[in-house]
Amino acid sequence: MYEPDWIERERRATLQSYGLTSEDDTGSLDEIVRLTARLLDKPVVFVSLIESDRQWFLARHGDLGGRSMPISMSICRHIMEAPGVTIIPDTLKDDRTRDNPICKGERGFRFYAGTPLVARNGRSLGAFATLGYEPAELSELGVEVLELQGRQVMAQLNLRKALRRADVMRREVDHRVKNSLQSVASLTRIQARRVVSEEARDALESVSRRINTVAALNQQLYASDSDQTVELKPFLRSVADLIRESISDAVTVDLEAQELKIDASMAGALAIIVNEFTTNSAKHAFEDGMTGTVTMTARLAAPGQFTLICRDDGRGYDPGTAGTGLGMAILDSAVDQINGEKILLDGPGFGIQVTCRL
């Protein structure tokens, strides 16, 4: 059936909009074609996509001689605009297929039945079809099975397209959020340099660090394949780098983090804990240009149990006043957010251990 060029161009554009490739995970489609082959008792069932120069198989059951074939050998191209199921009982007796190489010879396909895969705009992407080595008919039940399973295939393809589009939009939003957060943090730092009050300056710098921490979390989510989990090690490394930029060069920040994926909300709380502990240590434990080190260790202490240990080797703390400042109050709030337990560590300097369940 002849179609105007603009319709064919629109059909190909529709197919391209689905972004389907041979590298896609086809597990759910494979299940559909296997079940259909059993229900119809046919050796070959497949999902074909029709391009300008070839037909290729997104999912298949049985031997088709490869993942694709030239468009001239495609039977599915003949039924693209036909409604319902098209049945060719004997391919060697049908004008559309009698000269097709895949229908000839001892292993030629003599039976074909297929239904178009129609997108929401009415354009066909390809077909859901079955082949047999002997001339045959398809029962009324078989026709119903092929139509129903073809609709299931199309539903899967539409779902994949929707998820792909949602992922693109999410990443674009994440990118814009990251840029906005960085801009706000920069403006906050600029304002901090202009204020006279040391207390106001410290507060603005603290706000800037927290905004940058959120931006770092956003960046890790943007770089991952999930909006629910982040890689712990690179995320805490980003947070540590931000902290180093805002404290004295005399204070070294060491980080040892296990390769681990954790929930995004937990990552945010851990970042606040690390930020508050380190900046408080830099301010109070290493006064008057003292040199020292803040060490952070993040690891699995036991199956399902996560431990974060933060220590400094500064001048220590007064047991009577430890944990009474604003920074420690913020830290405690972050610990509560992840239902964690915090203990103060004995020994020189100051340290905390936070334990929580993954």
Write structural notes for this entry.
- This protein has 358 residues and is α+β, with helices and mostly antiparallel strands.
- The chain has helices at 5-17, 27-40, 140-194, 198-223, 232-246, 264-284, 326-337, and strands at residues 44-50, 54-61, 68-70, 86-88, 111-118, 124-132, 229-231, 251-257, 261-263, 292-302, 305-312, 341-344, 350-357.
- A hairpin with a 6-residue loop joins strand 2 (54-61) and strand 3 (68-70).
- Helix 2 runs antiparallel to helix 3 (140-194), helix 3 packs antiparallel against helix 4 (198-223) and helix 6 runs antiparallel to helix 7.
- The longest helix is centred in the middle third of the chain and has 55 residues, at 140-194.
- The chain is elongated.
- The two termini are 60 Å apart.
- The model has no long low-confidence stretch (mean pLDDT 82).
Write the layout of secondary structure elements.
Layout: H1 5-17, H2 27-40, E1 44-50, E2 54-61, E3 68-70, E4 86-88, E5 111-118, E6 124-132, H3 140-194, H4 198-223, E7 229-231, H5 232-246, E8 251-257, E9 261-263, H6 264-284, E10 292-302, E11 305-312, H7 326-337, E12 341-344, E13 350-357
Parallel strand pairs: 8-10
Antiparallel strand pairs: 1-2, 1-6, 2-3, 4-5, 5-6, 7-9, 10-11, 11-13, 12-13
Helix pairs in contact: 2-3, 3-4, 4-5, 4-6, 5-6, 6-7
